[in-house]
């Protein structure tokens, strides 16, 4: 079941102009009633009766299904907003949002106990430097009253400029005015695969600048090998001939069909024919951060059955892996027995900044 609406009418003889208008208005009313019914059915479905797999597709019709909950915030900061842009839910900030530690959830009504959830986390507006957004997924969110709450959160928690990890654990907060969060981690962080192209061979043409051409492993990314595009700044590491290693160079050409990436660098150098090399091409890390395409878009899938939590995450063009994280919740940790599903948008601030999410698929688990 997809919580989205679509209608199509077959061809027919053209009615008078006033008939067209009436038909159009009637159609709008029917669509509006349909949307209202979807929302009503969604809100009235309890944890005990939910047994179908649901896919919540980003659209203006499904946007009202998400409810905002502030975990921590500066009281004077305005609330973030959620819009739908290019097939993604965008949680948006403004220049008036100044708190780099603001944290929040966007939840769906209704509770689940044992559930398997997959969300696509799309590229944020930037990654690193003064802006290090932390998107994620929440399970079993429980409102403890007066703004306090608890949830099991899988969050891209960036620590010391390490963008390649997600923290899984119980979050507890006394209310947004207090601004404190207690986090009880479960196991070690989940390490995220970074998008990079593996080098198979190199060739060089002389000149000033010289051009190095790298043959890289095949990739299904539509724009180029592993999502690279002409003009991207990259770092290149090589293991055999270090003269082919570069930092912060610009991609000058891409041959997607043959898996070739070309870069130019200053200095007159002797030409070299194609030969085997080992290494990687990856997005450049600078003081301002890293291109968010290095880690997004990606899928995050989490499954909780009783006290067992399993998590996996993979880049969208990669095959889905097996479970990468599996832990048992300690008996003394008061994770809610059931609760709502939510999207996490942490550390979002500044003009034009956003965190983005794609479709969310929810599979209730009836057997372990």
**Beta-strand percentage range:** 35-45%
Total beta strands: 24
Q: What's the gyration radius in Å? A: 24 Å
The first-to-last residue Cα distance is: 22 Å
* Biggest beta sheet summary: 8 strands, antiparallel
Low-confidence stretches: 1-49
Structural class: mainly beta
Total helices: the number is 1
Mean pLDDT: 84
CATH fold name of the largest domain, please? Answer: Jelly Rolls
Element pattern in H and E: HEEEEEEEEEEEEEEEEEEEEEEEE
Question: How helical, in percent, are the residues?
Answer: under 10%
Please name the CATH architecture of the largest domain.
Sandwich
User: Can you tell me the number of structural domains?
Assistant: 2
What is the CATH domain class of the largest domain? Mainly Beta
The geometry reads as elongated
CATH superfamily of the largest domain: Exo-inulinase, domain 1
